[in-house]
């Protein structure tokens, strides 16, 4: 995947941008938007941010939610809240004619995600789901290696007050739909063939067994703990010659601009071109379909 920021034609204007949600991702977005105000011939201006807390950030103004959705000088919004708020905020943004970048997951179901893309098309605005986990050269590394026969994608992390709440934040593979998008990106049009789910008072563990069109296999393992030492993610391919390929970023950690900003560059290219990235849209919707197929297997009695 080419992660080099792409140039776009002169837009002839400065786009007003606002960030909703000041967690880790939101703070990174605000920091970057203050530091970088153009890319190629595209310019933007951070109009402000929305947070439940009263905050002071040098160079940024705190706004109300209503201001963000009704001000004419705010043309694009970045939604960086917990999952349970995404659907309401995305819908409100699209209804008010705003371009919307939303941290994954875009919605909590395939049905609503489809509805949102259709609404964006009708309104003539851009809808973009973030997945910075794809802004790397993993696909190139894989293509240069010996053919693979099995892939293990693993994520271990902690509870944070909402990620463990499947009712409000989405079941495991919707809440972490980026893992499925990674499998689709690297392994092709995989499908769900099995999986497991278990939980106790202190953790839960969900696995998904996927199969590529050529019968090669993928296992996604997701573990969340009430108490954890941090977040760990790995993508390991077992190759046909018996060796193992452990994918790691080749880009130097901390390189500038960071992943969130490069994701924003891609969003702004869509905004200035007036076209939603079809590859991103197709991958997003396919991942939701796979997630729902998995949950029908591993959590058949749940009603999300």
Polypeptide structure, described:
This is Biliverdin reductase A. GO terms for molecular function: nucleotide binding. It comes from Magallana gigas. Residues 17-129 form the Gfo/Idh/MocA-like oxidoreductase N-terminal domain. There is one protein chain. With 304 residues, the protein is α/β, with parallel strands linked by helices. The chain is 34% helix and 26% strand. The chain contains ten helices and twelve strands. The chain has helices spanning 24-35, 65-70, 86-95, 110-123, 138-143, 166-169, 172-175, 177-187, 259-273, 278-298; strands at 14-20, 38-39, 42-50, 76-79, 99-102, 127-129, 148-158, 191-199, 203-211, 217-225, 232-239, 244-246. It has a six-stranded mixed β-sheet, with helices on both faces. Helix 4 packs antiparallel against helix 10 (278-298) and helix 8 (177-187) crosses helix 10. The longest helix is centred in the C-terminal third of the chain and has 21 residues, at 278-298. It is globular.
């Amino acid at each position: 995947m080419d992660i080099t920021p792409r140039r776009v034609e002169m837009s002839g204007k400065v786009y007003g941008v606002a960030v909703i949600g000041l967690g880790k991702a939101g703070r990174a977005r605000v920091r970057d938007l203050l530091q970088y105000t153009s890319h190629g011939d595209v310019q933007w201006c951070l109009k402000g941010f929305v947070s439940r807390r009263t905050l002071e950030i040098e160079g940024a103004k705190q706004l109300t939610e209503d201001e963000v959705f009704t001000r004419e000088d705010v043309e694009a919004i970045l939604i960086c809240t917990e999952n349970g708020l995404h659907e309401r905020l995305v819908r409100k943004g699209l209804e008010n004619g705003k371009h919307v970048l939303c941290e994954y997951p875009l919605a909590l179901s395939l049905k609503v995600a489809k509805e949102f893309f259709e609404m964006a098309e009708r309104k003539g605005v851009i809808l973009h789901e973030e997945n910075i986990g794809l802004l790397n050269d993993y696909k190139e590394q894989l293509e240069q290696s010996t053919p693979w026969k099995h892939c293990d994608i693993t994520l271990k992390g902690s509870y944070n007050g909402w990620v463990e709440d499947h009712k409000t934040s989405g079941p495991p593979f919707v809440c972490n739909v980026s893992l499925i998008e990674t499998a689709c990106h690297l392994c092709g049009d995989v499908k769900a063939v099995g999986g497991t789910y278990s939980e106790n008072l202190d953790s839960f563990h969900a696995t998904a067994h996927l199969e590529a069109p050529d019968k090669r296999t993928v296992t996604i393992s997701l573990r969340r703990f009430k108490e954890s030492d941090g977040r760990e993610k790995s993508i390991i391919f077992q190759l046909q010659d018996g060796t193992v390929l452990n994918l790691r970023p080749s880009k130097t950690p901390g390189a500038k601009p960071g992943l969130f900003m490069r994701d924003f560059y891609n969003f702004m290219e869509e905004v200035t071109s007036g076209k939603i990235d079809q590859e991103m849209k197709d991958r997003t919707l396919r991942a939701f379909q796979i997630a729902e197929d998995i949950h029908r297997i591993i959590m058949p009695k749940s009603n999300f």
